[in-house]
Amino acid sequence: QEFVTVLVRDPRIQKEDSWYSYIDYEIFIHTNSICFTRKTSCVRRRFREFVWLRQRLQSNAVLIQLPELPSKTLFFNMNNPHHVDHRRQGLQEFLEKILQDALLLSDSRLHLFLQTQLSPEDMEACVSGQTKYSVADAIHSFASLNRRFPIEDEERKKGKNDADSDSESSSSGLGPSDDSISCGCKASPASEES
After folding, report:
1. What is the pTM of this model?
2. The CATH homologous superfamily of the domain defined by 4-146
């Protein structure tokens, strides 16, 4: 049975300059789903990148009512552990719901968001075919730079002789007109519209 485990954890304050700082969160994915190029991944994202992802997913799946993100409040205090943890939980619930929808799982942006550290601008360029690398290439490059999961490397070596290693069946070149299909995962016709 296929599973996707997503954890949003380890909030950290990052300083952009002497006046401005923000919090980013680690997103950990572990899955056996054929929709994913990598079976384990770990990236860091900030709140505004989640906002961008939700907007892009909504514009590509107009008939689906996407879950809400935790509200952005003027009174959010990054030094208040309760505020930070409340937002972290909301971001995790958002991703858990997103990852249950087959149509949303077919969006390349979601996979780049979860499995690379590309900026939103670079994700858009990749998805629209304006880069020399494909979605799968970007995910593999990021994974090879961040070898935190030796178990997956072992599994890949064992599976090299298999017909379907964990990534070779993924789509590799995305043209400008094919920006919503990714990673060999197709939306099922029975996906719910709510």
Report:
1. 0.74
2. Phox-like domain (3.30.1520.10)
